## 1
Amino acid sequence: MDRLMIDCQQLEKVFGAQKAVNAVSFQVPEGELFGLIGPDGAGKTSIFRMLTTLLLPDGGRATVNGLDVVEDFRAIRRQVGYMPGKFSLYQDLTVEENLQFFATVFDTSIQENYALIKDIYEQIAPFKNRRAGKLSGGMKQKLALCCALIHRPTVLFLDEPTTGVDTVSRKEFWEMLSRLKQEGITIMVSTPYMDEATLCERIALIQDGSILSINSPAGIVSEYPKTLYAVRAERMGHLQKALREHASVERVFAFGDYHHITLTPGANQHTVREWLQQAQFEGVELKEITPTIEDCFIHLMH
Ligand SMILES: Nc1ncnc2c1ncn2[C@@H]1O[C@H](COP(=O)(O)OP(=O)(O)OP(=O)(O)O)[C@@H](O)[C@H]1O
């Protein structure tokens, strides 16, 4: 196996009576783009903070590039890049001053690793004298990424980097990550957006502090054990209620313009279709579909 850059074994974090991180184990080999996918409160930030040595684990152990997060915290801090979800920039410093500050803290200079951030920095360079607090969400995110990269980290930790960022900037951001990956940097990224999961090489789905599944996005989809259908008709609210009450329908959930349903063992889609027509639903559409990561997540949650 490739060299392991992140190794978590039964990692735990407890806040009062709540287990924010519950026996979490996963491994990330060198050069991988690994995603932690889960809703708010799933425990993603707590895992990031333990791996970047800002929070002590209450159980289990973890290493980053072979260094223990408790014993070797100083060495880890020198070599990882961390872009927290919020407040990573000094709002009153300009773009250039922020970058200079991070370079100085890591005992390096902007020039030394400029090649790594060049593509990203050039996009915000026209605003280099603007205070970080006055930048748009997308520009803040680019600056924060430059700051996290300025010392050429071995592992880059990005906690919800695209939350609150517009669709175009989100897309650009993921393209930047693929380029960084080509530079050999191992990247662990978290996101609550299920559509972004497919942009990672492997993902861990996490909820309530526990990992539900770890695999490639395609692997997670292929593990989905049911046949999934999308159903639509006029009067969607009414349709949902009717589907819930039908004996052949096992589970129903609203999904964009459709309801996604699974059927009870032995039931088939024709029975449901005929019944919907008999029940006078207009414009019925019922089709078998490939599950998305979100469908897989919903299935694993129950
Ligand atoms: N310092 C703290 N004290 C008490 N509870 C905490 C603390 N930090 C986190 N928690 C709780 O632990 C759980 C996991 O939080 P965490 O921030 O790790 O989740 P998350 O997946 O990153 O979600 P979010 O996107 O909301 O930050 C949440 O229920 C949260 O309220």
Note: The chain has two domains: 4-217, 228-301.
## 2
Amino acid sequence: MEADAIAAARSAAAGQQAMPRPLLSARGVTLQYRTPHHIVTATWRVDFDVLPSDRFILLGPSGCGKSSLLKAVGGFLAPAEGRLTINGRPIVQPGPDRMMVFQEFEQLLPWKTVLGNVLFPMRATGRFRGREAMERARDMIARVGLAKFADAYPHMLSGGMKMRVAIARAMAMEPDILLMDEPFAALDALTRRRMQEELLGLWDQLRFTMLFVTHSIEEAILVGSRMLVLSPHPGQVRAELNAEAFHHGNVDQAAFGALSKRIHRLLFEDRGTPT
Ligand SMILES: Nc1ncnc2c1ncn2[C@@H]1O[C@H](COP(=O)(O)OP(=O)(O)OP(=O)(O)O)[C@@H](O)[C@H]1O
């Protein structure tokens, strides 16, 4: 889908209101890996804009390049073609303005307390020091509802609490965007649903911007405010959809089913792949 078509879809979705300036922009992003024998094209000329406070979903089948797009936004993979910008500046390397929250939140350091985990990147990067770091860390921990657990260790926490710590840790760095790569993929269905609710609850409080990768249609609709639907390998934009109507507590089953069917068709209709 071309940039103009995306802009048109977006203005229709917003009821023709003026859109805020995008925080993150992808224009014609082709991502490739060079192996000793050939070049693997992961995505093909992908366009999207993430607006402030979006819960923006990258949705597509396995191998369509979702994680590669996240890596590129993180600054770990340079586009072979096209441009990625954050706040109008090209993304050329990793930076604390884009914090990655990993799967299962297992990046928490087991030998450090909740407070120690939140302080760790602040101090290690030198972004915040001494008293300021301590105050910020305690404030973030309180904002995610874990003030009483500041001195607890990760093994003493539930999955949902660990997620809150992981988000507090990322948010304490004051990023512009949180990058989440299938954070709930390994969980059973009930736990996954609870974690999705927890994440949305936190978003209601903190209104952070997130770029969230999933291959679950249901998760995309529940968690996302907007989503980019990508074709099978190599990932191309099939559509950009608005899912704000399904924000939690507001699920109309018939509309949910209709959107889910529409996405399914978009994902699995065979339209051929570029040569
Ligand atoms: N380091 C790499 N070297 C070579 N090819 C790679 C590398 N990483 C990914 N690829 C290829 O790039 C394509 C996109 O991979 P990517 O992991 O981004 O897809 P994905 O949509 O995130 O998949 P999944 O949902 O299975 O995680 C795949 O064909 C994959 O094999």
Note: The pocket of adenosine-5'-triphosphate is lined by residues 33, 35, 40, 42, 60, 62-68, 215, 233 (CB under 6 Å).
